[in-house]
Amino acid sequence: KAGVTQTPRYLIKTRGQQVTLSCSPISGHRSVSWYQQTPGQGLQFLFEYFSETQRNKGNFPGRFSGRQFSNSRSEMNVSTLELGDSALYLCATTPTGGPGEKLFFGSGTQLSVL
Amino acid sequence: AQRVTQPEKLLSVFKGAPVELKCNYSYSGSPELFWYVQYSRQRLQLLLRHISRESIKGFTADLNKGETSFHLKKPFAQEEDSAMYYCAGETSGSRLTFGEGTQLTVNP
Questions:
Q1: Could you read off the pLDDT of B36-52 as tens digits, one per residue?
Q2: Which of A30, A51, A59, A63 ranks highest by number of CB atoms within 10 Å?
Q3: Domain count of the fold of chain B
């Protein structure tokens, strides 16, 4: 089984731009979650999608958004980038996102905002 | 608010020595708790979860509700155990609250 695939691996953007990151889940996994990882704040939950619907949302501004397609692939978008958005963005998938399920993580997209 | 705390950022032990990585939580109710690990140049992966009460790679973790702790233990550390360890509590489904992480180094 192929693992969770995130593209691109690295991104460099400037302030004010927007960016779209992609996550392809393991076959059969319908829940896709996104996390932001920074040295200062650690791993923070952004949002979760299941069956093309946002089911859970963390405490991030509206500039952070996402969507999920019918094949369970997910994208997240960050608009009007700020320097503080520089981070590793991780995608994690599970079959249903139910209680106690093991999260399978991708390798992440490293975003640098200049 | 739910909170998971790992008081040690760095932990260094010698091969063969016991190791304990501390984790404390502040949650309403009884959360599902996990330990995730990230080895060098690898992706974050599940090490163990309280719900399944399994032992992986010799690691165990006991939930102590009185002390609100979920410490990770291994009686004899190996060099290949060197990694970053994260304790996490489940808020709902895939929404986890992670601790800050502990970098474990096992010296030969």
A1: 999 999 999 999 998 77
A2: A30
A3: 1
